[in-house]
Design a protein that fits this description.
Ribosomal Protein L22, Chain A, globular, disordered N terminus
Length: 270
């Protein structure tokens, strides 16, 4: 029996119960069938621990057991639960039976026959899950900058075109620019499916928050990338996020639908 899908307004609140996600969710699929992308924000502080054993695979539960800290394990489990809940809603398959595979480059994906692309990123207490019909989707979220000499790291990972913008910066200005640029690079690398096998300094993803076309490899389709900047909202560390799509035009980033899996948070799309 098919039950109706939950409300999918961008102002929705509360974690949707697993029982509401049986069968194809035509309302959810309608937008991505038309070329759109659904971007879900997940609050990892909202836990549904009683559902984890039913929804997750033995391998996922075992991976959680290898985390040194319980908080990190529970965030991982909630993140995977949200991913499987959403993919089950779009595909109509049971959560625990979703055939999530890992590419040779390490990117999780569903079989081509399902025509459902996704990507996930999490940092701190937040996660982003992007879902669309195309496989080349990448999303990245970061909270805080790496420890150590940030300027030296920036010199290594940013391109020759980007470095002159970063080099005169310091302090909070450098941290914000680094996060903005790095999330854009990471989203592009994930959309391409290469991960860090392609050196990040070969990606000119830009240091402004608007949409930009990126073509890092002559033989590959271009990537369209845009930034999603998280408002302060009490965050102690600067945060930034980005979304990239390959194999389609930049217009697809104008068809992003913002949804919330958990309490609503203030996101801006530039």
């Amino acid at each position: 029996m098919t039950t109706s899908a939950p409300s999918h307004s961008h102002t929705a609140t509360g974690i949707f119960p697993a029982a509401a996600w049986h069968g194809p969710a035509s309302g959810l699929c309608r937008r991505i069938d038309q070329g759109g992308i659904d971007l879900w924000r997940v609050d990892l502080a909202q836990r549904t621990a009683d559902a984890w054993p039913r929804a997750l695979t033995p391998d996922e539960l075992a991976r959680a057991g290898r985390f040194a800290r319980r908080e990190l394990a529970e965030r991982f489990l909630q993140c995977r639960f949200a991913l499987r809940t959403l993919l089950a809603a779009y595909s109509g398959l049971p959560m625990h039976a979703l055939p999530i595979q890992v590419s040779a480059q390490g990117k999780p994906q569903l079989p081509t026959a399902l025509a459902l692309g996704f990507n996930l990123s999490h940092a701190g207490g937040h996660a982003l899950i992007a879902i669309g019909r195309q496989r080349g989707i990448g999303v990245d979220i970061e909270c805080g900058v790496p420890a150590g000499d940030l300027k030296a790291l920036a010199r290594q990972v940013f391109s020759e075109a980007e470095w002159p913008v970063l080099s005169p910066l310091g302090g909070d200005d450098l941290a914000r620019a680094f996060l903005l640029g790095w999330t854009r690079k990471e989203a592009c690398l994930k959309a391409l499916g290469t991960g860090l096998l392609l050196e990040p300094d070969r990606i000119d993803a830009g240091l402004s928050s608007g949409t930009q076309r990126v073509r890092p490899l002559p033989a590959r389709a271009p990537v369209a990338v845009t930034s999603l900047v998280m408002e302060a909202g009490g965050q102690a560390a600067p945060s930034s996020a980005a979304l990239a799509v390959s194999e389609v035009g930049a217009d697809r980033l104008g068809a992003v639908h913002y949804l919330t899996f958990g309490p609503h948070a203030p996101w801006e799309h530039d």
